Amino acid sequence: MSKSAVTFEATYDRYSPVLYGLALEIASTEQEAEEILMSTFEKAYQQKIFDHIGSSVLVTLIKLMIQLAYDKLYPDQQMFALKLKCFENTPMLHRAFCEPKGFECYCNENRLSRADGFRQMRSEFHTLRMGSLVNREASLN
To answer: First and final CA of the chain: distance in angstroms?
Structure first.
């Protein structure tokens, strides 16, 4: 197995639970959610984002998934019209992915330095990932 394939597999195993939960919120059916998830990983593989493993991979995958979902499911709607339950406890992530204002604006409004903003974002990703894993374990039992 090539290094690229191993990296893809490891990245899929690590992030697919979070992304599938997000896809289920965006799509109206499980089949659409699965298609969005697969399209996201296919496009990411084509763009070779797995060659640059790091904390930004999940951010890139989420942005890619939301863009693909909009293109496929809501082509006539304005971007950033989503209100996603998975981000309700992660205000910075919600702002970054579901609203047109981004990281800098959030930091300014909350009087956070860039370093504090990145720490909060890292914490929110951890919260998001852990919640997804807990939900996944519960659904398996």
So the answer is: 32
